[in-house]
Amino acid sequence: MAEYQSVIGLEVHAELKTASKMYCSCENKFGAPPNTLVCPVCMGYPGALPRLNKKAVELAVKAGIAMNCTIQQNSYQDRKNYFYPDLPKSYQISQSEKPLCVGGYLDILVNGEHKRIRINRIHIEEDAGKLIHDAENGITLADYNRCGVPLIEIVTEPDISSSEEAHAFLETVRSTLKALDISDCKMQEGSVRCDVNVSLKEKGSEILGTRCEMKNINSFSGAVRGIEYEIKRQLELLRSGEHIQQETRRWDDSRGVSTVMRTKENAMDYRFFPEPDLGLISLPDDLVSQIKGSMPELPGEKLFRYTEKLGLKEQEAKIIAFDKDKAELFDHCLSLERASAKTLCSLIVGEITKYLNDTGDQISDTKLTSLALAELAGDTEQGRLSSSSAKKVLNELITSGGNVKEITERLGLAQISDPEHIQKIVAEIIAQQPKSVQEFRSGKTNALNHLIGLCMKASKGRANPAMVREIAEKLIKMEE
Amino acid sequence: MDLCKMAVSQFREMLLARKISASELLSIHLERIERSQLNAYITLNDKAMEAAREIDRRISSGQELPPLAGIPIAVKDNISTKGLRTTCASKMLENYIPPFDAGVVEKLRSAGAVIIGKTNMDEFGMGSSSENSAFGPVRNPRDPSRSAGGSSGGSAAAVCAGEAVLALGTDTGGSVRQPSSMCGVVGIKPTYGSTSRSGLIAFASSLEQVGAIGRTVADAALLQGVISGPDPMDPTCFIKAKPKYSIQGTLSELRIGIPKELFGEGISDLTKDVVMRTLSFMERHGAKLIPLSLPELRYSVSCYYMIASAEAASNLGRYDGIRFGHASSEHSSLAELFRNSRSEGFDREVKRRILLGTYVLSAGYAEKYYRRAASMRAKICSGFETAFSKCHMIASPTATGVAFPLGIKRDDPTELYSADICTVPANLAGLPAISFPCGSGEGGLPIGIQLVGRKFAEDQLFSAASSFESLSGGYEQLITSGGD
Amino acid sequence: MDIKHLAELACLSLDPEEAELLAKDMELIEGMIGELPDIDGTVQPKAMELREDAVSQKYTRDQLLANASKTTDGFIVIPETVV
Which CA distances in Å does C32 have to B308, B360, B413, B481? Predict the structure, then answer.
């Protein structure tokens, strides 16, 4: 029986973070009352003409540079013609023949494997309106606020081979666009969306199978589920000897199935032609070099540095690298050279992330400074603070600020690492627990843990646990 | 003296001298329109008198008057006027009230013009007879049993008949020039990109411009000077500064190219005769006639119809009855709502253009039709460029004959298309072109001569036309003297 | 020309009589436009000036919804449920 390899391509749409829309000066904002952010241009009124937003072009170029594309000095827009009530002009101004950015790539990390996903193109276009379906009353409500919001469409080559790779790619794109302030990528607000193309090919073959497109994917995990469903669906068809029909399908996440929207026979004929209402998009000579020159280290690059150079675990490294604020905090702390990457990492992905998730705060909302965190990490590493004490100090730093030394002293949390002091505690506990001592001597190692636990309790968690163990073992052996 | 046949400069003098008020001037025009059988207007501006009175207030307080102050002007009904119904002579927009003024209308208002109303036309600009109108055909003032030409028939007829002093038309393939020729008035299509298209309800975006129609060259030049100029609302209006059109100049040393392709068999012998006599007249007064050949012009009608229809099909997609325009009450699905609204709202000519435009852009045909048309367009442009190294401007008849009778049953829609042979090249190449009356043809009906100039060389066209006008004594003189 | 297919693409509904008339029209038109020779060359569009990214909300909702046949609560009503 033939073995199949999945071949996946993605089309990611991201709304650009501009003040105004793509072709008019209406505000680019989510959540306003219906039809309050509109004008004759974005509502497709007769005689209204589009005027292209300069910032939108700059952000698109920035995205292209971040994804290693070739930026076209001169490009133009095309009309994509089709009828749908959320598309007022009955055409979308997009790019077909000469997209702004071509031929790039984005490197991803999946389960320790590096992979390069090639980008076919990135082009600019406008978003459509929103339709609210009221089946009960047999009507649809149209809100054109979103019409004309600037979009970039990122189209990959079919280099993705699994749903995990797709997820990793989406995470990498999202964090990149967010880090560069190109898009706020809020899937729940629809500012990032993706369509998926899936096909299967025989393992070892160069011949691609028939691909199916899937639309209506509303989350990254939805993309994973959709891809897996589609792979399974196609596999079943192939295994039963049937052919895959080229289709556009609609993913229904709540039901976990996809249904046919369009077949190849009634595929859309968009009748692309150059937009006559707009001229040539000619980039200023120094724009590309300017943007390249001020490009910071990107999330994907950070991920590689964290895993390759700093030895962090992939999952944890992703949590930091893909979050602009966490990465900034991490890198800054690292530069202060008070603690190792591993310790800083575990503090950030552990307690700090938990706090941010629980409260919904951003790091900037807290009182935590990078110096304080670096010092805390250093103290923990060098045994001046036990892990439970560190948690308490961290909490203080986050909620009230201050510095580590002051808090540690005030709360009396300094770790006890003085052997004499510990010996005193251990000796007391041993004297109180003859039974456990006896059990340990007769081979029950658990009994030692019990004794250590009691010592820790007696020291209010401040004793250096490793030292307690060492000293307890020594004392017990000595008394044999 | 027939008040309604005077020129702008005369009216201005009278207004300044308080011999007539702007309100009176408007009233005279309104009375004329009331009595008229021409059907040149679709909607009259109920705020016109208010505007006229405002001008009168300014006059009496001695304020400086802008160039068109108090002058009654007609605006073709595909140009948006805020708050005033704009129908494009179509059932589709029968009740459409634009929420904004076209860029050119804003300029008219700033110039103090009094907008009398919106003129009748071929639906959405598609046609050359002004018969394809949901509001009835326009009649030619020279002979009311005949067409006023199209698609700006209403504008040309209004100016000719004294129902407006000046008018705005739009020219996509000859729609200002041909009706001007048919009615015996002056009409100009300016250089593409010199005049704002913001608010011009689009038919073919890369071909059309708003053009001025007047009874004299000076009047047309004045109006065009007012409406042309930069407009940030139109990115294709790339002219850098407001033009100043003068009409000074002579015919002496003017090199006028005569392309044989525009004097061919599709044009009536009498028309060709009259135009050639006009050119000989100009030669006698110093112009040099240069015979030329522009072989690619034989493809220009075909090229034009492919590109214009493609753009039109796309531009007219927005009419689905949802946000504005005719909405069908017969539907049982969304698709039916769209289709029925559109089918009920558009007339047959519009449907033909939409189908043609859809065809030339459709999968499997776009390469053979649209793409080749785009390349041919480039060739036509370079053909003109080469020609302009030999001459200043290119002359031809404007139309293939005089005004034709109304109501001709045409089984072949391409009959009228082919008659656009002389006018479409200027649209394809984005060049300025003027039509002015140069004599009479059959039945004493007017014949227009067309001059096509280099980009942004409207001045030269106005000068040449104006020189001819003064030397020949003007069109009315031409009629009486048999167009010699 | 496949009139039926083109009408569908262009979102027009033609009753059989009209479709027949138009089919005849279109045949003549197709004949007139003929076929252009296959040559090279395009008209390069002019470089355009881009708009600064500034917000300017000049219209009220009422102004822009005034021409719609049916509205409710600020939405434009489409009298069919869209799937």
Answer: 15, 13, 10, 40
